[in-house]
Amino acid sequence: MPAARPARIPNQRDGAEDAAAGTTVDHLTETYRKHYRSLLGLAALLLDDTASCEDVVQEAFIRVHSARKRVRDPEKTLAYLRQTVVNLSRSALRRRILGLKLLSKPMPDMASAEEGAYDLLERDSLIKAMKGLQRRQREVLVLRYFADMTEAQAAETLGISLGSVKAYGSRGIAALRVAMEAPA
To answer: How far is it, in rounded angstroms, from Cα 160 to Cα 146?
Structure first.
């Protein structure tokens, strides 16, 4: 039976060689153990389903493992992984959006003449009710609900306080309800 070889004791020179060689597999494995969940959480903030998040994080580790010799400083491994997770998440979202655009869109159901007329009457009564509002109420409602602005954006656009936007909006909606429920 051959004699067991003694364990190799690393010296300072070996550490320099490891740094030049890049991130080691052991360091990457340890990074996986320590940071997998936090990277999964990062992906979850960018994507909407668990399976995609897990795929992105796994792919990030695979890519960093493949490029580990280029990661000169092992302390930057986590930063590389985070950036890779973000980039892969962006790519996944782009693919989804492109896929949705390329899917053939079904023809919308054609509304009956009666429904079209009813919609037109509702729209006309809404426009009439909007014209009956105070100027500021109308401006706030148009910016908030038709221009899809936040309260802060509407306040900045109109040059009024956030509280004023809330007050004009609340009063405007109340006045619209009354006007829309009143018989014509």
So the answer is: 19
Residue 84's CB is within 10 A of a number of other CB atoms, namely: 20
Query: At 12, is the pLDDT very low, low, confident or very high (cuts 50, 70, 90)?
Result: very low
Tokens of 131: 């014209």
DSSP letter for each residue of 42-56:
HHHHH-S-HHHHHHH
Give the number of residues written for the chain.
184
Q: How far is CA 172 from CA 43, 120, 136, 183, in A?
A: 41, 22, 9, 19
The CA-atom distances, in angstroms, between 77 and each of 25, 28, 57, 63, 162 are 11, 7, 14, 11, 45
Q: What's the one-letter identity of residue 158?
A: L
Buried b (16+ CB within 10 A) or exposed e, 35-58: beeebbebbbebbeeeebbeebbe
- Give the end-to-end CA distance of the chain in Å, rounded to a whole number: 104
pLDDT above 70 (res 181): yes
Q: How far is CA 43 from CA 16, 46, 85, 95, in A?
A: 34, 5, 6, 16
CA atoms of 93 and 24, how far apart (whole Å): 31
Give the pair of three-digit tokens for residue 75: 């302390």
Helix (H, G, I), strand (E, B) or coil at 85: helix
